[in-house]
Every structure is written in C-alpha cells, then in structure tokens.
Amino acid sequence: MCLAVPSRIIEINDTVAKVDVDGVIRETSIMLLDDAKIGDYVIVHAGFAINKIDEEAALQTLEDMRNILAADVIKTKGPIDKTL
Question: Are 5 and 44 in contact (CB under 8 A)?
Fold first, then answer.
C-alpha cells in the first residue's frame, strides 16, 4: 500500500524543502513541482512532493489519519486510560 502525507513547506533551498507534518520536520524533494513556495501544502510520497493541495483538504486528511491511527490503537491495545 502506498501512502502520501500532506505536509506544509516551511523552508526551501533550491530543489529541497523542509516540510512540517504535525511538528515532525523532514526534507523532501520539490523537483517535481514548478511553483512550490513556503506555506504551501504538498503531498509527499517516498521523499518527493508530488502535488500541491489546498490547506483545508490537507488539514482534513491529517485529522482523518490521526483518527484512523487512534482507532487502530484502541482496537489493538484497548481504550487509553486518561485518569493516569
């Protein structure tokens, strides 16, 4: 299965950008995009920004991914005890 993650560009140096995904900073190639700029949301797959995406769609996708991961944790490990 392939997974492409929405990421926000925070810095650009030639064809390499630093992107932020929920506070995790990574480098990704932007050589496949013509007009990437700081603040843009891009879809990153295998270290390459492959497409720009609007902010609303990016944020919704990230929220959906968080919800799926949380549901999987509950399914495999049981509910999280928040009283601790």
Answer: yes
